[in-house]
Amino acid sequence: MAGGITDTGELYSPYVGLVYMFNLIVGTGALTMPKAFATAGWLVSLVLLMFLGFMSYMTTTFVVEAMAAANAQLRWKRMEKRKEDDEDEDSSSGVSDSDVLLQDGYERAETRPILSVQRRGSPNIFEITERVEMGQMASMFFNKVGVNLFYFCIIIYLYGDLAIYAAAVPVSLMQVTCATGNHSCSVGDGTKYNDTDKCWGPIRRIDAYRLYLAAFTLLLGPFTFFNVQKTKYLQIMTSLMRWIAFILMIILALIRISRGQAEGHPSMAQLSGIRNLFGVCVYSFMCQHSLPSLITPISKKKHVNKLVLLDYILILAFYSLLSFTAIYCFRNDTLMDMYTLNFTNCEIINIAFVRYFLGLFPVFTISTNFPIIAVTLRNNWKTLFHREGGTYPWVVDRIVFPAITLIPPVLVAFCTHDLESLVGITGAYAGNGIQYLIPAFLAYCSRKDTQLVFGSGTVNKHLSPFRHTFWIVFVLIWGFSCFVFVTANIVLSESKL
Questions:
Q1: 127 to each of 69, 72, 81, how far by Cα in Å?
Q2: Which residues of the chain have a pLDDT value below 70?
Q3: What is the pLDDT of residues 86-120, one digit of tens each?
Q4: For residues 146 and 131, what is the distance between their CA atoms, to the nearest angstrom?
Q5: Residues 9, 232: Cα–Cα separation, whole Å
Q6: What is the DSSP secondary-structure string of 335-389?
Q7: For the segment 328-351, what is each residue's pLDDT rounded down to a tens digit?
Q8: In angstroms, rounded to a whole number, what is the distance separating the alpha carbons of residues 30 and 423?
């Protein structure tokens, strides 16, 4: 996620990019949104969802702008390097007085602000053709403290991601296999189970959860010690499974509502649920860290901000449809942390294959993503501690870094399987930093650097529609306010216990 400059890859059309971005944003976080909607109330949830969608779109345009500025600076540095190489060649060979005069005139032309060069026929200086990851942009535009804070933020976010994944798979397996009665029919019937309830014989539900967690760690944990990449075909398979599951859940909920079997009576507002809803929504709109690999291969980027806006409108509509059908179809107290588990009840769907497919859907999709996120986190740790020209000892490189990547999230998952809280806290803290604070600082610093290097009149062709400094200040105030609000809410909630 936070690597350096990488290959652009095969180009694709803007509309293919739109589909890829939709698939990137709509992921596992969406499965925890219905429960968060029910907890906070439908009106508060809808207003907050729309506002956070708008904020996420704004910061997405900030990242695109910073990508263009980074590409421009890289081009300018290459031009400077070529000029220095040419000067070295000239100095090493004999030149006449007229050549010296010509060279002097060339130098004066080249040392003008790049604005003058751009006006004479270089309109593509800000074209996004190289994939510059967020870590590289942070190194270009931030000071040393800013770079370290960036890596700290993204590492905490990835730890949260892994903890959510490590808990979601065992929870799904526990809920499906520990159900009583006819196969998995009683999972979504509204019965509340405690962790100390029996699963099989003397084995309690919490014991089953931890056994599944141990098996999950033993099966997928070793991949952290190697290099793993998500293949094109694996991406297609997981995307297809995800869309089949989402569409099935929406259709089944709509059928149940149309037959008059809806049980949900959601309230308009419950302020106590805003904290988790905020974190879930931030987590569910997260894409800023992956924008370089998503935007760079788009062949025509002239209207990229409009396409991104269309994507956000479609995602907002999808999240609203998924959540509203859920909160009106099911009672608030029966909605599960992982929404797919509500469809493992025979009264909802009597086809066993569909029940098991939806119940175990997170197991398949998350299991393919866990090793990739783990390797990304491990590489970020290496980058954070890397020193120019230095290498790590074999034990540190092959054992220590993978171990500090794998052990903390597994320990968190061992202690709790409250997915709504895990998603809420990850989104509210690390997600807040990645989605709001880092893009705002990137936009501000890249604008300052662009004016310094290229001249004050230079216009970035991918400048955000929110170009006024007010918007950057607004995002920063919002981001820091959210930190304070969520922390105060947690402290007050704990003090009441």
A1: 9, 7, 20
A2: 1-9, 90-123, 179-193, 228-232, 235, 388-389, 493-497
A3: 777 766 665 555 444 444 444 434 444 444 444 44
A4: 21
A5: 12
A6: --SSGGGGG-BTTT---HHHHHHHHHHHHHHHHHHHHHHHHHHHHHHHHHH--TT
A7: 999 888 888 889 888 887 777 888
A8: 10
Strand pairing report for 131-132 and 5-6: antiparallel
Q: For residue 36, which of 486, 419, 402, 391 has the smallest C-alpha distance? A: 419
Which residue from 448, 362, 450, 408 is spatially nearest to 70, judged by alpha carbons? 450
Q: Which two tokens stand for residue 73?
A: 């600076």
- Identify the DSSP state of 213: H
In this structure, what are the phi and psi dihedrals at residue 192, rounded to the nearest 5 degrees? -95, 125
Query: Computed over its alpha carbons, how large is the radius of gyration of the chain?
Result: 26
CA distance between the termini of the chain: 39
What is the identity of the amino acid at 203? I
Residue pair 136/4 in contact (Cβ under 8 Å)? The answer is yes
Interatomic CA distance for residues 495 and 489, integer angstroms: 10
Strand, coil or helix: 181: coil
What percent of the chain stands above pLDDT 90? 33
CA distance 286 to 451: 30
194: number of Cβ within 10 Å: 8
How many residues would you count in the chain? 497
147: tokens are 């770079």
371, 223 contact by CB (below 8 A): yes
Nearest alpha-carbon partner for 48 in 308, 334, 268: 268
Task: State the Cα–Cα distance between residues 484 and 462, nearest whole angstrom.
Answer: 33
Q: Shortest CA distance to 162 belongs to which of 28, 266, 286? A: 28
Asked if 442 and 141 count as a contact pair (C-beta separation under 8 A), the reply is yes
Angle formed by the axes of helices 401-415 and 352-385, nearest 10°: 140
Handedness of CA 358, 272, 60, 305 (dihedral sign): positive
Q: Are 245 and 361 in contact (CB under 8 A)?
A: yes
Instruction: State whether residue 203 is helix, strand or coil.
Output: strand
CB distance 8 to 129 below 8 Å: yes
Place of tokens 């901000």: 305
> Are the beta carbons of 77 and 125 closer than 8 angstroms?
no
pLDDT in tens, 30-39: 888 999 999 9
What dihedral do alpha carbons 347, 350, 355, 358 form, nearest 10°? -80
| Contact of 329 with 175, CB cutoff 8 Å | no
DSSP 67-108: HHHHHHHHHHHHHHHHHHHHHHHHHHS---HHHHHHHHHHHH
Token pair belonging to 80: 């400077």
User: How far, CA to CA in Å, does 181 sit from each of 93, 188, 189, 441?
Assistant: 90, 12, 11, 55
